[in-house]
């Protein structure tokens, strides 16, 4: 079985004011097919964890490790991480001017698989995935995320997820800024990916709302760069009722 293992991870970020320590010893193990929700207040380091897994150059891993089936992810380039089966849906997806969505998807698929997808089946697959995400076909020929609304960008992230078929996906606040209809469509896409490829998911969210559609097996509460508490889905219901106050008071 495939496993993504994060051990005693310490991460700092380079800012204009110098280096700032953000993650202070994170431990988290995700097996393929499991859905883990990482919940926590703003500024607790959730996106930093996502970036550290993806290999963002601004985030420095000071100590600890991230392994995928025993291989040290921290020694891999961003490209190698994607090839190894890691995927990040960003909280703020970036625009790529001059690159159409369809070119981007085909190039990414080719890079990850090490060979070009067979053109006819690929086109069908892209169209099918777009339809299921209720994306108009014109989005294929538009530049990646350029001029997309917040919700359209989030759908586009899930389109990549469904087509690239990673082993593990980190979804960073994929729910934020979505209305109920879009939330359902995006969640269905995530659930399809989970079911069809036994995807392991790290679902980062501030709100419990998305957990009505995507059912986590485990919930981890993030406070001040650490996992403050963990449990099953019942922990999410508790947070829905009580919010993060209890953890914030404890953290001070
Ligand atoms: P979350 O995703 O939980 O809201 P983040 O990981 O984005 O939290 O941020 C954690 C803390 O690190 C925040 O205080 C944030 O301001 C700070 N931080 C993260 N990235 C940067 C950056 N590039 N420059 C300056 N501060 C940063
Ligand atoms: Mg499962
Ligand atoms: Mg964040």
Automatic annotation (TrEMBL):
Stored Pfam families: ABC_tran
Tell me the domain of life: Bacteria
Q: Which PROSITE patterns match?
A: ABC_TRANSPORTER_2
Q: Name one GO molecular function term.
A: ATP binding
Q: Where is the ABC transporter domain?
A: 4-249
Q: Which UniProt keywords apply?
A: ATP-binding, Nucleotide-binding
- Tell me its family: Belongs to the ABC transporter superfamily. Ycf16 family.
Protein name, per record: Fe-S cluster assembly ATPase SufC
Gene that this sequence comes from: sufC
């Amino acid at each position: 079985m495939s496993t993504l293992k994060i051990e005693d991870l310490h991460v700092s970020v380079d800012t204009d004011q110098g280096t700032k320590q953000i993650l202070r010893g994170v431990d988290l193990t995700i097996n393929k097919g499991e859905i883990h929700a990482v919940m926590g207040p703003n500024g607790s380091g959730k996106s930093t964890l996502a970036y550290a897994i993806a290999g963002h150059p601004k985030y420095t891993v000071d100590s600890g490790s991230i392994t995928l089936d025993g291989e040290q992810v921290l020694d891999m380039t961003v490209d190698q991480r994607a090839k190894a089966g890691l995927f990040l849906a960003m909280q703020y997806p970036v625009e790529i001017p001059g690159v159409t969505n369809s070119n981007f998807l085909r190039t990414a698929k080719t890079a990850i698989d090490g060979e070009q997808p067979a053109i006819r089946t690929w086109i069908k697959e892209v169209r099918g995935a777009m339809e299921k995400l209720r994306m108009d076909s014109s989005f294929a020929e538009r530049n990646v995320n350029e001029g997309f609304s917040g919700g359209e960008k989030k759908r586009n992230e899930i389109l990549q997820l469904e087509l690239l078929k990673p082993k593990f996906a980190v979804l960073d606040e994929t729910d934020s800024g979505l209305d109920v209809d879009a939330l359902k469509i995006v969640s269905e896409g995530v659930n399809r990916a989970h079911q069809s490829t036994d995807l392991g998911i790290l679902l980062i969210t501030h709100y419990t709302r998305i957990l009505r559609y995507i059912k986590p097996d485990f919930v981890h509460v993030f406070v001040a760069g650490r996992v403050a508490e963990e449990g099953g889905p019942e922990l999410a219901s508790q947070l829905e009722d009580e919010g993060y106050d209890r953890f914030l008071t404890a953290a001070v």
